[in-house]
Amino acid sequence: MADTGRAGVALEWSPTVEWSFVVERYRESDTNFLRTGVRHAINRNLSVELSRASDIRNGSGPASGWWTLGLGWTFER
């Protein structure tokens, strides 16, 4: 499989220490995607994240999409 170009840009906003929101537009495998998400820091080491990503078809029918739920753990430094 040949390498394909990838590119993207993201904007993340944290109104409080516990909450952050992200919007991301990226290109992978010749397809454009849009992802939005939210992260909640339960404590200093543990966070839960929920995001929705979908491909952008530019008017050529409904976009397919998927949800992602994740847990993040930050190890002590």
Written description of the protein model:
There is one protein chain. The chain has 77 residues and is mostly beta strands. The chain has one domain: Pantoate--beta-alanine Ligase, Chain: A,domain 2 (2-Layer Sandwich). The protein has no helices and 5 strands. The chain has strands at residues 7-13, 19-28, 31-41, 46-55, 65-73. The protein has a 5-stranded antiparallel β-sheet with strand order 1-2-3-4-5, with no helix packed on it. A hairpin with a 2-residue loop joins strand 2 and strand 3. It is elongated. The relative contact order is 0.20. The model has no long low-confidence stretch (mean pLDDT 88).
Defining traits:
single chain; 77 residues; mainly beta; Pantoate--beta-alanine Ligase, Chain: A,domain 2; five-stranded antiparallel sheet; 5 strands; elongated
Question: Order of strands in the sheet with the most strands?
Answer: 1-2-3-4-5
Separation, N- and C-terminal Cα atoms:
38 Å
Output mean pLDDT: 88
Computed structural class: mainly beta
Count of runs of 4 or more consecutive helical residues:
0
Tell me the fraction of residues in β-strands, as a range.
Answer: over 45%
CATH structural fold name: Pantoate--beta-alanine Ligase, Chain: A,domain 2
The number of strands is: 5
User: What can be said about the biggest beta sheet?
Assistant: 5 strands, antiparallel
Could you spell the SSE succession in H and E letters?
A: EEEEE
Q: What's the level 1 CATH class?
A: Alpha Beta
Estimate the helix proportion, in percent. under 10%
Rg computed from alpha carbons, rounded to a whole number of angstroms:
15 Å
- Tally of domains: 1
Uncertain segments: none
